[in-house]
Every structure is written in C-alpha cells, then in structure tokens.
Write a structure and sequence with these properties.
It contains six helices and 19 strands. The protein has 310 residues and is α/β, with parallel strands linked by helices. It folds into two domains: 3-115 and 240-308, FAD/NAD(P)-binding domain, CATH 3.50.50.60; 124-236, FAD/NAD(P)-binding domain (3-Layer(bba) Sandwich). Strands 1, 2, 5, 6, 7, 8 and 19 form a seven-stranded mixed β-sheet that branches. The longest helix has 21 residues, at 288-308. The protein is elongated. The relative contact order is 0.18. The structure holds NADPH dihydro-nicotinamide-adenine-dinucleotide phosphate. NADPH dihydro-nicotinamide-adenine-dinucleotide phosphate is lined by residues 49, 118, 150-156, 158, 175-176, 180, 182, 202, 238-240, 286.
C-alpha cells in the first residue's frame, strides 16, 4: 500500500490551500476531493469578498484556479469519497469508496459542511422534483415559476437573489421577523421587487403530486394559522452541517459535529498528526478566506510535525 506524507481529505478553499502549501514544501500531497470537487463555492455565483478580485470572481472559477495552483507544484488529486480512516496508529490507513487504500503519515481534514434540510416527510425523495438546496444548480429549471426559499441568513438571501433571474416570484419564508443575513445581502433582497418575505413562518409540510412539488403548508407563529402556499419549488437556505460522519468518532467534535481544535490557535486535533481546517472545524466565520487561511496553517503544522517525527 502506498504511503503518502500528507493526505488532504476534502477540496474547498481550505483543502486546496493546504495542498498548495504542502506541495510547495515538497510533501507531494494527495487530495481526495470527495463528490463535490471544489466544495460549496462551486455552487455559488459571484464572490465579492475574496481579497485580490476587485470586480469579484465566480465561485467555480476561483476554485478551479486554486486547484490549478496546487497542481502546478505537484499535488495529486483523486475524485472519490473517503469511507474510512483508521487513526489508531500512524501511518493512518485511508480507505476510499472506489476501493483505493493509502497510508498517510499526516492527514489534513477539510471536508467542509453540507446544506441542511428541514427533515420534512418526502423532502429527500423530492430533491430534483421541486426541492433543492442549490439555486445555482437548479434555478434554471424555474423560469417564470413561483419558488419559496427557507431561511434568514446569507445563504437564503443569496439563493433568493439568484432565483429572481429565472423565477417570476420568490418568497423567503423565515421563522422570525428579523434576518440573520449581513446588511448588504438584506438590502439587496429588500430592494428586489421580485422578492417578498413571509415572516414568522415555518414550512410544516410539502405538498406534491406526480409532477413534483405543488405547494407548502406554512405555519405562522404570530397568527397561529397554517396556510397552503402554492409553489413550484422549495429551496433550502438554512445553513450547513459539518461532514465528519466518516471519522466515526475518532476525532473530537462538538455536539453539532464540528471538529474541536485541541491546541488553539494551531489547527491540531486530538489525534497527533491529524489536522483540520476550513468549515469542518469552523461554525463561526465560515468564509472562503478564513477557510483558505486555516488550510495554510494546517499545511505548515503538518510540515513541522513531519520534521519533528522524521
Ligand atoms: P446561518 O446559520 O447564518 O443562517 C441559517 C438561517 O436558517 C437562519 O436564519 C436560521 O434562522 C434559519 N434556520 C436554521 N435552521 C432552520 C430550521 N430548521 N427551520 C427554519 N429556519 C432555519 O447560515 P448561512 O448558511 O446562511 O450562512 C453561514 C455563513 O456563511 C455566514 O457566516 C454567512 O455570512 C456566510 N455566507 C456568506 C455568503 C456570501 O458572502 N456570499 C453566502 C452564504 C453564506 P434563525 O435566524 O432564526 O436562527
């Protein structure tokens, strides 16, 4: 079985930056990219807050460039999913869904976080038939249709704005009467005539027929009434949960599953030689730039660890 000095699991800004730094340090890293190479930014449009791009940059383009930059210094990439990691002893054994197995002297975990769903009956079965958590991926299918977006954060605002390019009307259903989203994103939605807010409201049920979603039952906590709202699509914008299930409890996490750094400010975990960066260990900042910064830290930490354990 091939032994790698550094295996990076996950491929958002954190993973690609870790790859850039460790490949430039001649550590010949392997990035196991997962099913969504490039991570969450590949499903977004304009990124206006990544420094160095005065006019903004498209998320997929930014990620493609980060990958290319890491590739230039010899990073290897594998597009598969890690199903198991044995962290009981070093080198760690990494098993992939496609049957590949590797040994790793150090591991950098940068698996990010995935979109949350409401947990309603039939919700998952209706993905692709009116339920979505990615406006960028699916917005195109809602030309001249009515859609509802759930959530009050930046994700929901971004989804709603994007959907107005296609849909005739976009309703944002939020469980409170104030938004969590940043002020500029709020303003963008308030000023968009196609967007309307449905305050103090929770989606309780998805109504559908053979063609897919036709409506939602929405409960208003102020009026204590449930009403049927017709819709062609329901988009989730309620945040994300960290992708740590494959670690099967070997790495210390908080109650939501986010990896807990054990030697802050260093990106160390409770297993020596395993480091974590990006959204998988950050439920607070969750920005592309903070993820990239932590990827750099994890790579430098892995490099020093290897030097000390040579
Ligand atoms: P947030 O946690 O910020 O917001 C989640 C929203 O969904 C909240 O309004 C929350 O309601 C609501 N919500 C959560 N669970 C439920 C539920 N079960 N039912 C109904 N509503 C629910 O997540 P985001 O993904 O929006 O943002 C995460 C981070 O990423 C933030 O830091 C954000 O700034 C950043 N981001 C930046 C973007 C950009 O700059 N382009 C784009 C997207 C995200 P409540 O408010 O009541 O808790």
């Amino acid at each position: 079985m091939e032994t790698k000095k550094v295996i990076i699991i996950g491929s958002g800004p954190a993973g690609y930056t870790a790859a850039l730094y460790s490949s430039r340090a001649n550590l010949e890293p392997l990035v196991i990219e997962g099913h969504e190479p490039g991570g969450q930014l590949t499903t977004t449009t304009d990124v206006e807050n990544f420094p160095g791009f005065p006019e903004g940059v498209m998320g997929p383009e930014l990620m493609a460039n980060m990958k290319k930059q890491a590739q230039r210094f010899g990073t290897e990439f594998l597009t598969t999913h890690v199903t198991d990691v044995d962290m009981s002893k070093r080198p760690f054994k990494v098993t992939c869904e496609n049957g590949n197995e590797f040994l790793a002297e150090t591991i950098i975990i940068s698996t990010g976080a995935s979109a949350k769903y409401l947990g309603l009956p039939n919700e998952k079965e209706l993905i692709g038939k009116g339920v979505s958590a990615c406006a960028t991926c699916d917005g195109f299918f809602y030309r001249d249709k009515v859609v509802h977006v759930v959530g009050g954060g930046d994700t929901a605002m971004e989804e709603a704005s994007f959907l107005t390019k296609f849909a005739s009307k976009v309703y944002v259903v939020h469980r409170r009467d104030t938004l969590r989203a940043s002020k500029p994103m709020q303003e963008r939605c308030f000023n968009n005539p196609k967007i309307e807010f449905v305050w103090d409201s929770e989606v309780k049920e998805i109504v559908f027929d053979d063609t897919g979603v036709t409506g939602i039952q929405v409960y208003n906590s102020k009026t204590d009434e449930t009403t049927l709202r017709k819709t062609d699509g329901l988009f989730m914008g309620i945040g994300h949960s960290p992708n740590t299930g494959f670690l099967k409890g070997q790495i210390q996490t908080d109650e939501s599953g986010y990896i807990v750094p054990t030697n802050a400010p260093h990106p160390d975990t409770n297993v020596a030689g395993v480091f974590a960066c990006g959204d998988v260990q950050d439920s607070y900042y969750r920005q592309a730039i903070s993820a990239a910064g932590s990827g750099c830290m994890a790579a430098i930490r892995a490099e020093r660890f290897l030097e000390e354990h040579e």
